[in-house]
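INFO  loader      accepted 1 record
INFO  loader      residues=333
INFO  predictor   begin
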Amino acid sequence: MSQEIPLSSSEIATLWMTYQQKTMIRRMLEYFITHAEDDQAKEIMQDTHMQVVNYIEDIKTILKNEGAAIPVGYTEKDVNVVVPKLYDKMFDIMFLRLLKEISMGLHTLHLTMSYRKDMISLYKELTAFTQSGYDKCVDYLQEKNVLPRPPAVSVPKTVKFAEGTDYMNGLHLFSSKRALNTVEAAHIYYAIETNVLGMQMITGFAQVASEPEVKKYFVKGKELAKKVVSDYSKILLESDIQTPATWGAKATESKVAPFSDKLMMYCVSLFCSFGLGSNALGTAFSLRGDLPLTLVSTAKDILTYGQDGGKIMAKNGWLEEPPSMEDRNDLIK
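INFO  predictor   done
INFO  writer      dumping tokens
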């Protein structure tokens, strides 16, 4: 029985977006669970998979009660669990951790866009579930000593205020650049960490993609991630800050696809959107004049790359359209 208050356009949009993401995660986890070599990692992924399936059904129920169409999302046709391993040990949980980070941001945003009580409850539950799963991933990776920690810094003993505009130097060729502050270093370090994993992910995708155009697109993405890691690492090293590094989580030599080109393209699109959001935060909180220019240039490259991916998906019939608002001009013709 549908509630008296119908779903708003924002709530329909968030349900559609969540359904797309969760069905993708469901299919990818099915593959990673099949190839898990560590019982603890397998348990973490199985628990996540079970909860994700439940939330997919919850979304279906809400949409059915409203008389709305159920999205296609990603199905059993988009995964092949019996092919060889595409990634080395530890990639599965490191990848899941990053998916949890993306999900936490999305669920919190979707919560603020919801007005019906059942929708608010849904995103509160999703947020709590995602945070719990994220904690399990972090604990596991730290226990295995594969999660790189941000660089140490001396604890501040005094409070300082900027004296004049010298604090923001960095735009001029002959002006000296101050050392990064902790806020700037944190965002740059995080961008490197996520792009290192993204580079490994998309390297695997490039090895197994079926369509030549998709393979070429993934190779381009690998080079973009490599450029981000290189450019941002240089900024850290200029301030004598160590860059993140970890063992494991690499692509294997397999050339057999566990996922459809459609699913892999969507996954890369999701990462692009996440990268743009993270980059925007880094730009907003960077006070040294040269940093926003670098970050904005990176954002432009990511945006262009993401748009190119959208065109490939649309051309191949893989781009499922979000529910549309009524076209009044068309209706009154």
